[in-house]
Amino acid sequence: MQLDKLLQKHGFGTRRACRGLVRHERVAINGQICEDPFAEIDTNDLIFTVDGVDWPYAEFACLMLNKPAGYECSRKPLHHPSVLTLLPVQLRERDVQPIGRLDEDTTGLLLITDDGQLNHVLSSARRKVPKVYLATTKHSIEQAQVDQLLTGVLLNDEPEPICAAACEIAGEHLLRLTLTQGKYHQVKRMVAATGNRVEALHRESVGELSLPADLKSGEWRWLSTVDLQKLGYLS
Ligand code: URA
Fold first, then answer.
1. Helix, coil or strand: residue 150
2. What residue's CA is closest to ligand 1, atom 4?
3. In what residue span(s) does the RNA-binding S4 domain sit (predicted)?
C-alpha cells in the first residue's frame, strides 16, 4: 500500500497532511525513516512509527478499554465526556465506536471498533454473547433474590420475564451475574425488580474475553488474534 494512503487510513489526516509527515522525516517503516510518501509498503506484520510512536498496521481498529466511571458511550455525549476521548485522536479519526453501551457510571470491559461486522456479530441478539457483570448492591443480597434473577423478573416494556444466564453471590453486597441480552439499564432494572439496588456496576468479561488485570482504568489496548478468537470472531 502507498505510504501516504496507509497513513491516511490510520487517521493521520488528509493525504496531503500525510505526505507532509513523510517528507518531514517523521515516519519510519520497521525502524527506518522513509522520506518517500509514494513508497509501496508491505503491510504484512507491519509496524510503522510516527513521531516515535509505534503503530501496528490494522485493517480494522479493534480495541478494548477499561472504562472509567464518568464517561458516556455515545459519540455525541450529553452530560459527560465520550469514552472515545480516552483514545488517541488517530483512532477517533477512524470512526471507531463502542460495541453496545455501558452506562456513564458503569466501569470495566468495553470493546470499540470500526469493523462493522465485528460490531454486528457481538451485538446480535441472536448470538446471545454472555456478558459478566459485578454489581455492588445497596442492601445485602439474599439467596431469594439470586433465585428470582435466575428464574426471571418482569421489567417494564418487556412482555416476558427476563432471566440471568448465571448469578451468584460474590460478597454480602456483591452479585456476579451473566446476561445474554443487552437491554437498556438491564442489570440495574433486574436487580431493582428484586427489591435491591445497584450502587456500582463493573463489566468483567464479554464472551470468553476478560478484562486483563493489568489494564488500568482509562487505558486501552489493541485486541490480539487470541482476544478475537475468545470473542468467537476468528476461528
Ligand atoms: N446493565 C446496566 O444496568 N448498565 C450497564 O451499563 C450495563 C448493563
1. helix
2. 185
3. 1-61
Does the predicted model carry a pTM greater than 0.85? yes
List the domains of the chain with CATH numbers. Answer: 3-56 (3.10.290.10), 62-125+214-230 (3.30.70.580), 131-206 (3.30.70.1560)
CA–CA distance from 167 to each of 70, 117, 136, 173, 176 (Å)?
A: 27, 30, 13, 13, 6
**Overall residue count recorded for the chain in this entry:** 235
Distance CA 22, CA 146 (A): 59
SS3 123: helix
Q: What is the pLDDT of residues 177-187, one digit of tens each?
A: 999 999 999 99
Ligand 1 cavity residues, CB under 6 Å: 102-103, 106, 185-188, 201
Q: Ligand 1: distance of its center to the CA of 89 in Å?
A: 27
Q: What percent of the chain has pLDDT over 90?
A: 92
For 111-154, the pLDDT digits (tens) are: 999 999 999 999 988 889 999 999 999 999 999 999 999 999 99
User: Which of 80, 189, 83, 77 has the alpha carbon at shortest distance from 133?
Assistant: 189
**Nine cell digits for residue 32:** 527506518
Strand partners, 97: 113
Q: How far is the CA of 48 from the centre of ligand 1 (A)?
A: 38
Retrieve residue 68's grid coordinates: 472509567
